[in-house]
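Entry for the shared binder. Reason: the reviewer on the internal report wants the predicted structure included alongside the sequence.
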Amino acid sequence: MERRFKLLNEKCIESKGQYILYWMQGSQRTRYNHCLEYGVLKANEMKRPLIVIFNLVDGYPEANERHYAFMLEGLKDVKEALAERKIEFYILHGDMVTNVVKASEEASLLVCDKGYMKIQKKWRSEISSKVECQAVEIDTNLVVPVETASQKEEYAARTIREKIKRQLDEFLYDFENIKYLVNKSYKKKFCFYEENLNKSIEDVNKILKKMKLDKTVSRSEFFCGGEREARKRLDEFIEDKLDRYGEKNSDPGEDNVSKLSPYLHFGNISPVEIALELLKSKNDLNKESVDGFIEELIIRRELSHNFIYYNISYDKWEGITYGWAYETMEKHIKDKRENLYSIKKLEDAETHDIYWNTAQKEMVVTGFMHGYMRMYWCKKIFEWSKTPKEAYERTIYLNNKYFIDGRDPNSYTGVAWCFGKHDRAWREREIFGKIRYMNSAGLKRKFDIDKYVKRIEGL
């Protein structure tokens, strides 16, 4: 576990502290959670109680009711699983830095999960500088920790693949939860007893009403958050879809995908657990499928985290792609665009393209979109906007607003890919220049795309 660690300050473990504190944020689960198990290990070693906190903030950037509802559903699972292990759990509400620092006042050690996004890095930096005890960050949401896989932003999958593969044996291992041995609890009344929302977590709607948040996008009826639901979806995927994944995963009409991305986004399930279960199921018949899924789960996903971790401009138009891509897009910026749509027309799925409209509907209604259609969806926004920059901004807006897994390294990287990131130059054409192009003729040629339309129309 040690190579997953990063000390966030130069302070010592406080021997006079009263408890070990695990501030849970990105890893909202109790299975395959290195942070939690390290907290248990230190609690047993120091004979101190372990306390786990989660802090809700109003107005997390670009998050809305859909995202908060999914997250709160998952925290129910966390509460129940921790209670079974007799580990104290508190859900706080308010300013992140203020609450976590206050909760750490009598802690011997603060443990937190790795932050990859800007705001997550900022919180960890501020909190670790203000607490009196040692603060340690543990990378538990990737198979190979982001800083271990590479110390720089990688150019493409081919430049990071072998770096990750040669370390998989070290990091891809099964482990059981450590038995929590501490019987005593922390009795003193302090900040996380005062407004502890985990007492009312069973009524997600009640908590949502208390919060000041964007309620323009309602919760999805197609996805319920939590590690139990995540595990159920994994088991169903392996049982019903894995054998055909290599052949059918790109086909929107077949819907032969795992739909685990929302659960990975909120840390409801570990990629280590997913990979281990897939490898257990590997045989001569599904080898291609397992290898293909592992490529997406580990290589491609960790390339995405590498991009947003090392590129401080991952969310700004000026920093998302390569010089050749900007150059070719600029060269074609004045090309005539046959169809131009307002953001409202796009949001309301009112274009001339039935396949694009269907994909937009899938996203708005369910919070999810088939991966191949996600690429097509983005490419068409490129084609139907006045400039590539406008296209990028519109795509990010829609992506982050409706997708449950929006505001995510994979999402930001997927959008950047549509503008040349981690891709190569293609044959030059109007509007796109040398950026990869996609059209409806390709959908019709490759798939029974009307089957996809019929499936989504039935939602």
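Summary line for the report: The two ends are 44 Å apart (CA to CA).
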